[in-house]
Prior knowledge:
Layout: H1 2-31, E1 36-43, E2 46-56, E3 61-62, E4 69-70, H2 75-88, H3 118-122, H4 159-173, H5 177-189, E5 232-233, H6 235-248, H7 250-253, E6 258-259, E7 267-269, E8 274-278, E9 281-289, E10 294-300, E11 305-311, H8 320-328, H9 334-339
Amino acid sequence: xxxxxxxxxxxxxxxxxxxxxxxxxxxxxxxxxxxxxxxxxxxxxxxxxxxxxxxxxxxxxxxxxxxxxxxxxxxxxxxxxxxxxxxxxxxxxxxxxxxxxxxxxxxxxxxxxxxxxxxxxxxxxxxxxxxxxxxxxxxxxxxxxxxxxxxxxxxxxxxxxxxxxxxxxxxxxxxxxxxxxxxxxxxxxxxxxxxxxxxxxxxxxxxxxxxxxxxxxxxxxxxxxxxxxxxxxxxxxxxxxxxxxxxxxxxxxxxxxxxxxxxxxxxxxxxxxxxxxxxxxxxxxxxxxxxxxxxxxxxxxxxxxxxxxxxxxxxxxxxxxxxxxxxxxxxxxxxxxxxx
Length: 340
């Protein structure tokens, strides 16, 4: 009898905690003018899901666990994971110039670009700018890439580098990136609601972004996979990926530290992941910004804790610091300060 009573007490306490967190998240997104949120919290072997707000203004379509969001630059971490698989399989050398694997026509006028390796792409030291042109515009594919500094010498965030690595990996495996991601990540990990290209099944479940006035904006439907930003997924699916990353690859990806600009004490970049050091220890993180979609995750390796947050709002990154304080505990969140 005592055992049953204790079990019931524990269950009721857990339910109360979930409702309390849900109320906190509901208030936070309202105060931050964020339209909709998917959030996953992993604490060792326990996973809790929170869904709040709307997928689209004007239609009573609430965010649920299968609502599709744009992961934005969290896409890059999937490419990094695949690259590290290929390094382990000896299909790519992380320090061999990528031009050995793929002759990229956009860098033909810049000899320094021939020094760029997979390691430099993953830790953002290619010397390339983020984008030479808007990658959603026709002019981008024929734009010229030129390094702004000698590759490998300092940190500068670049989506262009991840496209280059994607093309090199496609050349090595002789497959397009959607098939590569499906075979190596989505299917093995059970990520049933994930794709680097638009699928018709997403038409009713995909969110619309929202601007500063909480007005819906145009929904991008990607028909070509871009490893830098085109992943369409759910927080649940992405948490499945991060759990495997934490178990198998994270330690290796966090070893190659490059300081981020003037934040040498607190912010670094590893192989495809941001690194933050604060009172709680060393944590992995990344953010995504597709304009009116903002996303982020944080991982505390020692505690085996993961926080994933997807939003369909230009204001989404306002949630980063309060959510981190709420779930991990109060600390200095240098990554959130740097982004905002």
